[in-house]
Amino acid sequence: MDPSIAIIDDRKWLWNVVYARLGDANLTDDILQDVFVAAFKRKEDWQEIKQVRGWLYQIAIRQVLQFQRRELRQRRRIEQYSKEKSADGDRSLLDRLCGIEQVDMVRSALWQLRPSDRQVLLLKYCDELSCRDIAVRMGVTETTVQSRLLRARRQLRGLLTKRGAYEKESK
Known about the structure:
It is a single chain. By secondary structure, the protein is mainly alpha-helical. 72% of the residues lie in helices and 0% in strands. The protein starts with a helix and ends in a 9-residue tail after the last helix. The model has no long low-confidence stretch (mean pLDDT 78).
């Protein structure tokens, strides 16, 4: 069977496989995109594939595990930075990032952002990288980084405002 046909035919089954491991429809859609990209990158190997479903399953599981490892690393980084002290004295880096005292609310709100938005905020404010360095590290353009930063800041501010942790400063 041609793997490109199997990918189309088995899309719903594969979606259920990934969703069962993540429990989030949006994340599942994102991971499936990565699965399909990975499958098509190995197009030259398609002639040798005997069990297409098994091959797709392995790619899907590998993508889920990679995503979970990235998430765990980011979670650990957030926890590490929330404990470290900055040059400002007793304020943690997450406090400085958001300008608030409720680190738990910030941490929770960060986890509600898209992974790419969360990553760009962490690289900018925790790792203190420039937009150019972030673009190189993420493999995107500088304009994309700036757009993601703007979107992520707005979303984070909105989430924190809903929880009462952020008040707009009066001019």
